[in-house]
Design brief:
By secondary structure, the chain is of the alpha+beta class. The protein is built from 13 helices and 21 strands. Helix content is 32%, strand content 25%. Bound molecules: flavin-adenine dinucleotide.
């Protein structure tokens, strides 16, 4: 069977959405060319060999993704001069993949006859003194499961109604005891938003459904996120697709109402369809806004992302009880947006042979949620750093004696568009014909990586329907 489709597709950006779309569309027989402005693929889910970077290259790379390092121990110059990151494979900042081994990622890779090995974990909960693992005992589950299931299996009509209902209201209605804590923590950690007034109940339960597939709630790829990108790039190239790195798209060419090509390095390239994976707020830096309805431009520019402060801790010795586990914490009344802040400390990558750190170095990854504005505010960051360190201390008393180094990346564009009641994510099809947008900024199930992956699947379905 000839499954060749002769349409020429241009994908702008080789982040996870661009690469998944490239892999799915080349499999469908489309001619795909991906332009990526950076020299590395992966976008915000980028992982890199930390040994091969100078301090300047590292900071420059982070700044290109709206990130910096407000703190480190020892100072960054000492870390780099003493080659303390030798043998580490880091991301821009910690990524917990919702759904672990059964995440949308592996279901897409399965269609490409591939898969990735995932380190995965249930979650525990950090208390004043010590922790509970798992978070929910069998008795807790029996008690709260009927209510959770009622929400999880609600019809799409009910879900749409719940889209406009804040988690604050849902917690008022259903939240008592452990159920309250579950709703408070999971809705925040899934949405990366602390303010329960802004979190949409419908979106939360849609994102949660994936966890019912029998997998553990969180996962992280063995050997880092880069392994995923290499697999996808290989699939794209083996099917005749082209990935050009270090090539920034300067302009999307639009003829009246139809996208017809792009300009790269001052050269014009014609395409039948253009797919942008840029943060939607930045779309009009390469697409002249005069071709779009004014309201659309205004709405796209107004959309807000999410932020966080991450911390990587390299420890010499970790209690074996903690290895492979992940823990949530909630810090009350610290005066951030939403007042309480939720975070996670993850020892999944502290087990042997993760491919992320040298043998016997134990890498602990963590993050605490904040808004984009808070991620750039030194006073708030100071508070958030103290909370991260305090919660690690609760799990590893006197961890300072075990510490080789710590790096705290701050990010103010974590999820491109927060999935909140006040932010309506745009559709994949734009008002300009043959111009599509995908990624974590658009309307697709899930948050972050899962949303980016699902948007690429919806794009594939849209193309198949229109063929
Ligand atoms: C520190 C950090 C931690 C995160 N933690 C999590 C997490 O725990 N769980 C989770 O699910 N998600 C997390 N995320 C979010 C997740 O990384 C993103 O949702 C996902 O990577 C978005 O992929 P994307 O393809 O939509 O966009 P991007 O990754 O932003 O890809 C867009 C690509 O387009 C390229 N580009 C931009 N302009 C041009 C141009 N003019 N020409 C050519 N190329 C261009 C960019 O360089 C980039 O490679 C985190 C993000 C960060 C930064």
């Amino acid at each position: 069977m000839d499954n060749k489709n002769h349409s020429e597709i241009c994908i702008i950006g080789a982040g996870i959405s661009g690469l998944i779309a490239g892999a799915l569309l080349t499999e469908q027989g489309y001619n795909v060319t991906i332009f990526e402005k950076e020299s590395l693929i992966g976008g915000r889910a980028l992982s890199f060999d930390a040994s091969s970077y100078t301090i300047d290259q590292y900071l420059k790379l982070l700044s290109r993704f709206q990130m910096n390092i407000p703190y480190s121990e020892p100072d960054l110059t000492t870390i780099f001069n003493n080659k303390m990151l030798q043998g580490y494979r880091l991301d821009l900042g910690y990524h917990a993949i919702g759904g672990g081994v059964m995440s949308n990622l592996n279901s897409v890779l399965a269609t490409l006859d591939d898969h990735i090995e995932v380190l995965e974990s249930s979650v525990g909960f950090i208390k004043e003194n010590g922790y509970d693992f798992p978070f929910l005992t069998r008795a807790d589950k029996l008690k709260i499961l009927p209510n959770i299931l009622r929400l999880l299996f609600a019809s799409e009509k009910t879900m749409r109604r719940l889209d406009d209902i804040s988690m604050t209201k849902t917690i008022e209605q259903y939240g008592q005891g452990k159920m309250k804590l579950v709703l408070e923590i999971f809705s925040r950690s899934i949405s990366t938003v602390n303010n329960l007034d802004r979190i949409s109940t419908g979106e939360m339960f849609r994102a949660q459904r994936i966890l019912l597939k029998g997998s553990k709630p969180v996962g992280y790829p063995k050997n880092g996120l880069g392994e995923i990108h290499q697999k996808l790039a290989k699939a794209i190239i083996s099917r005749g697709g082209i990935i050009q790195t270090g090539k920034s798209v300067q302009k999307i060419l639009i003829d009246e109402t139809k996208a017809i090509g792009v300009i790269v390095e001052n050269k014009e390239y014609r395409f039948d369809m253009i797919v942008s994976t840029l943060l939607v707020q930045n779309l009009f830096s390469i697409a002249d806004e005069k071709h779009f309805p004014k309201e659309y431009v205004k709405m796209m520019k107004s959309l807000q992302g999410t932020g966080s402060l991450c911390a990587y801790y390299s420890l010499k010795d970790v209690d074996t009880q903690l290895l492979g586990k992940t823990f949530h914490f909630i810090e009350r009344d610290i005066g951030v947006d939403g007042n309480d802040a939720v975070g996670m400390i993850d020892f999944m990558s502290a087990v042997e042979n993760t491919g992320l750190s040298p043998p016997s170095h134990q890498l602990v990854q963590s993050y605490i949620i904040c808004t984009p504005k808070e991620a750039q505010d030194k006073k708030t960051l100071n508070k958030l750093k103290m909370v991260l360190d305090k919660n690690l201390e609760r799990l590893v008393p006197n961890y300072q004696y075990q510490l080789r180094w710590a790096i705290y990346p701050a990010v103010w564009h974590l999820d491109g568009v927060a999935k909140t009641i006040d932010n309506a994510k745009p559709e994949i099809e734009t008002p300009v014909k043959n111009l599509f947008i995908i990624g974590d900024c658009v309307k697709a199930p899930g948050i972050g990586i899962n949303c980016a992956i699902n948007s690429a699947r919806i794009l594939q379905e849209t193309f198949i329907r229109s063929d």
